[in-house]
Predict the structure.
Amino acid sequence: MHRYKFVLYRPLQFLPVLFGISVITFILVRLIPGDPARVLLGTRATPEAIARIRAQYGLDEPMLAQYFYFLRNLADGEMGRSILYKIDVLKLIATRIEPTLTLVLCSVVLSVLIAVPVAAIAARNQGRLADQVIRIVSTFGIGFPPFWLGLMLIILFSVELAILPVSGYGNTLSGKLAHLVLPSLTVSLSLSTVLARSLRAAMVEGLKSDVATAARARGMPESIVFWRHVLPNSLVPTVNLLAVNIGWLLGGTVVVETVFALPGMGQLLVRAIFSRDYMVVQGVAMVFACATVLINFLADIVTVALDPRVKL
Amino acid sequence: MIAALLKVTDLTVVHDGDGGERTLLDAVSFDLAAGEVLGLVGESGSGKSLLCRSLVRLLPSSRLRISGGSITLSGRELTTAPEAEMLAVRGGEIGMIFQNPSSHLDPVMRIGDQITEGIRFHQRLDAKAARAAAVDILAQVGFPDPARQYDSYPHEFSGGMRQRAMIGAALSSNPRILIADEPTTALDVTIQAQILRLLMDIRARRGLSVILVTHDLGIVAQVCDRIAVMWQGRLVEIGEKRGLLAAPAHAYTRSLIASHPSLPEEDMPAKAEKLRTPGAVPVVDIEKLHVRFATGGLFRRGAVDAVNGVTLRVMPGETVGIVGESGSGKSTLARAVLGLTPVSSGTIRFDGTDIASGRAVLGMLRRQTAMVFQDPYNALNPHLTVGKMLAEVLRVQGKIETAQIPARCGELLDLVGLGRAFLDRKPRSMSGGQCQRAGIARALAVDPKLIIADECVAALDVTIQAQIVELFRELVERMSLTLIFIAHDLAIVRNLCQRVVVMHRGVIVEEGRSEEVFSRPKHAYTAALIAAVPHIDPDKPLLAPSKMATPQADGVAN
């Protein structure tokens, strides 16, 4: 089991990474032009009122001092108060994290469920009709922007067929899932094409590999050659690609949550940016950054599990 | 002869390409008796491997097809058998092992499971019985602790053990015929001897018939009953080994025998001792050299001494061979001499100057030394023509005028026997031998004092090997080059080099004049190395009973 030892000590390496993330998001957020106090109070606010709000949120202090407050609050499990929502950012994020998390999870599962069989069919019929059709369809999948694809899905399934809700989020589990079908599908259609392409390329290589030849020479039928030898060897590069794409996906939820009016972190982020709600932008950015670090860590664990040669 | 187990008649395989049909196997006929070992020799591209693949109808490309002839296995026709029947034949009747066990074993599957797979599929055993059978097979192919090693992965084993595992996987379904395609080419000689001994032992125990594909006539002479020679897709000659080796009928067979490096050559004028001026400065002077590589990660540090205290002096005009098995440190030594690997301790002086004394010295070193690499294809830039490649080196070296570069490129190609037509060729359109000549031309373009050739003929066919070795011999003569020639092939070193250095685990165990070291080795390791080389004379047995061969003494060929 010594190959899994990195699971214990790798998190130590996260500390400097997280520190770097906090510094960068802190500075970037403050580089956004505009004054949050003015946004909060509207255009007719008096200079005194603005100064009072700035003092209340510590916005009149130097950047370095603001950063120390930020770190001290973080140690107390707080990320500062949201200017707009008037509650702690961490609590605010906690109310919004579930839809986003579920959306990402459903999208990833759906993408893998689409990508593996599609790649398998394409690879095993390399150059034939099925492969060509899949290639053309997947080019469309990559080509269409998610917001457009989302709207088209809404028109088709919610407006014309009226079998799925248009937008929003449910309260019961089944209601929530029903609301997540179209958003997940929107994300999966582009994500699965990226995965399927990489997986197909690895499988085509695998079918020609010496490992496959040796298995055939032992009399193994093509199905065993493929599922037992080619597939496991093709998964490793795709897992890393998936991890990179989940990081990208977190940013992508901003668009999808807006299109489907899902009350998640993406939507929160968009509103916070428009209202110069520093603390929220900072908090969401940090959560996304931590999530990306965590996902790559999970991908490393999966890679070690899939490939006995890998040592981390 | 008893009734043939396998009978191949006029087997023809064609390639359907854009330019029409091309015949790759041309009416090949032979038969194989039960328990017989047939050696199949020929150079790369002669169709040996394709023939083996055709026997089980596993053609490497969909553009290849069997266009005529028949293959009968105990009276059953295989060329027209349905695919389902072929699944039972592959593995179940005809097993195969391949040259490169590292790439043919599934890296993410346990060794034992790869053997169990065949047992379960062909013999329909349940998981527990199959595992027991697999453990038994692992023991048969020489795994010392089969029950535990069952759960190991291929990368945890050495090349020799991997080849044993692959033999185990082939045996898993109890085949009657074993096709071994260059099974020992990627292995060191001592390991090669062990694997050949194992194959013969298994043949004896199981009554297997074996088709052994190899380019090494020494191996066929030692282990086979009959020899078949392939040349350009045709089986040009087949016969009992002694008769065939003594009186080869085909011209290619004769050249193959002539170029086999184990033949003692009576006339070796090139090896005449060079005049050694007393007090001359050695080209390379290595003293107590250590090269240590760190192993492990952040938490488990270790170190391996790849070169462990080597002292060696190479005089101008000398040809020194360095031999040893993989991992003996010979390549690391060479890289250290060229300043390509950091040295842990000790000194290397090139022409009297310590190469560790600054970047300027390193620059001087690079202008006076050159290396020829093992893999001729990968060592050449695929995007450059040979002419551009040579011109680049000449321009960077700046030893001659720019205007003279094209003329010099032509001269260099003449020197290595390629001809000026190759100036516009790219590596892709050249054979392995031609690429290696281009690689040598590139080394000569530096106008070096010293050339280091690292396993530069290992990837080439025997007849081509002989040509390249001859080229080196000529060049050394004509240009008073100093050559360090690294090879695992003892016979080639013996033919080319005046002096030989034997390395084992980072240490020089023996050093001396080639004739002396090879005829009267002083160190036990050198003796073992020499004894493991298969001799082309069948009456000088390689597989003579040794302490390892007690149970398989009766399995020895002859």
